[in-house]
């Protein structure tokens, strides 16, 4: 009798989500795919980490990217897996307030639950940092977070990526990476005056991108697969130019770190984009 009870307890412990959740090793790969460090690092501090502080200038004001290390007071220590998934896929914080789309949850919403659990498992292993990040400097009325609820109703398309059954598995893997974790469209798709992505012009470039950068069109324009491979691995275009600015970060942190299969999938999707 006692032994049965013990078995039951052990069985439950093993089956509980606390143990089954994420794989931190895989999560580290997802972190790169998501380019999280490009935004969540601390400027002027060696060894880029996730302790936040970078200022992102936008037409709506300046955002200071938060500390996402597992520190309980100034980071996201103590967040449950569900808190994390709600932030990443619904743009909602554990206290129920709405995030600004300067945090690209508008793309991360497409990420699979398993990828997010793996990512959270990795974030839990990072050294906690006590770095305190300044408050956002957003003028009225944009400083009122509840307005983001209206913004979301207009421009936020929530939901996990759904594969296109008419396309190959490789194409679908590429579509997932580009539109979900790697959030390529957040820069390469132009935005309307309220900061919503203009999906009718997907990937057509943005003359007025983040930090006033001019962002090129990445719709197919005669590049061979090898041209994309060289650009996304080494940053060199077929004209012999080197890609820099924020794309330099994307190449260093994301596309050069993709496995061969994942990079091929991304390229397949870009080449066949219509
Ligand atoms: C383009 C810049 C950018 C990228 C890339 C980015 N974030 Fe963020 N993130 C932000 C900003 C800005 C906020 C603050 C949003 C707000 O205050 O409304 C934020 C907020 C968050 C929060 C909420 C923190 C809190 O204290 O409430 C989490 C969690 C988070 N990001 C995780 C991630 C993860 C994981 C990745 C990579 C998959 C990532 N972010 C990539 C800019 C970014
Ligand atoms: C943070 C903003 C940002 C994100 C995210 C981003 N890009 Fe870029 N991308 C740029 C900028 C800026 C340039 C122009 C760089 C330059 O000319 O030095 C660029 C250039 C490019 C080019 C070269 C185009 C040409 O005609 O020269 C390609 C291809 C490209 N990006 C693909 C991607 C892919 C694929 C992703 C997602 C994995 C991505 N980008 C994500 C900002 C971004």
UniProtKB/TrEMBL annotation:
Bias (Basic and acidic residues) ranges: 210-221
Pfam families for this protein: Cytochrom_C
Cytochrome c domain ranges (all copies): 22-127, 169-274
Residues annotated as transmembrane: none
Ranges where the record places region Disordered: 191-221
The organism's place on the tree of life at top rank: Bacteria
Annotated Polar residues bias: 191-207
Signal peptide boundaries: 1-20
Gene Ontology molecular-function annotations: electron transfer activity; heme binding; kinase activity; metal ion binding
Keywords: Heme, Iron, Kinase, Metal-binding, Signal, Transferase
Protein name according to UniProt: Diacylglycerol kinase
Species: Terasakiella brassicae
């Amino acid at each position: 009798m006692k032994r049965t009870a013990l078995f039951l307890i052990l069985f439950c412990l093993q089956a509980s989500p606390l143990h089954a959740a994420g794989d931190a090793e895989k999560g580290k790969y997802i972190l790169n795919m998501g380019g999280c460090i490009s935004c969540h690092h601390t400027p002027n501090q060696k060894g880029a980490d996730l302790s936040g502080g970078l200022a992102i200038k936008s037409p709506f004001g300046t955002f200071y990217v938060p500390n996402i290390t597992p520190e309980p007071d100034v980071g996201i220590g103590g967040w449950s897996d569900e808190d994390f998934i709600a932030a990443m896929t619904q743009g909602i914080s554990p206290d129920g307030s709405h995030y600004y789309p300067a945090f690209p949850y508008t793309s991360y919403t497409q990420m699979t639950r398993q990828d997010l659990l793996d990512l959270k498992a990795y974030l839990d292993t990072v050294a906690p940092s006590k770095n305190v990040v300044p408050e956002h400097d957003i003028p009225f009325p944009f400083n009122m977070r509840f307005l983001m609820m209206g913004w979301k109703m207009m421009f936020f398309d929530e939901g996990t990526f759904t594969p296109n059954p008419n396309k190959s598995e490789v194409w679908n893997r590429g579509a997932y990476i580009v539109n979900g974790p790697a959030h390529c469209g957040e820069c390469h798709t132009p935005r309307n005056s309220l900061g919503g992505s203009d999906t009718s012009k997907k990937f057509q470039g943005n003359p007025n991108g983040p930090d006033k950068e001019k962002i090129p069109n990445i719709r197919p324009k005669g590049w061979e697969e090898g041209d994309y491979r060289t650009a996304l691995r080494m940053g060199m275009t077929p004209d012999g130019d080197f890609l820099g600015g924020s794309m330099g970060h994307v190449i260093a942190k994301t596309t050069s770190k993709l496995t061969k299969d994942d990079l091929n999938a991304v390229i397949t999707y870009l080449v066949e984009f219509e």
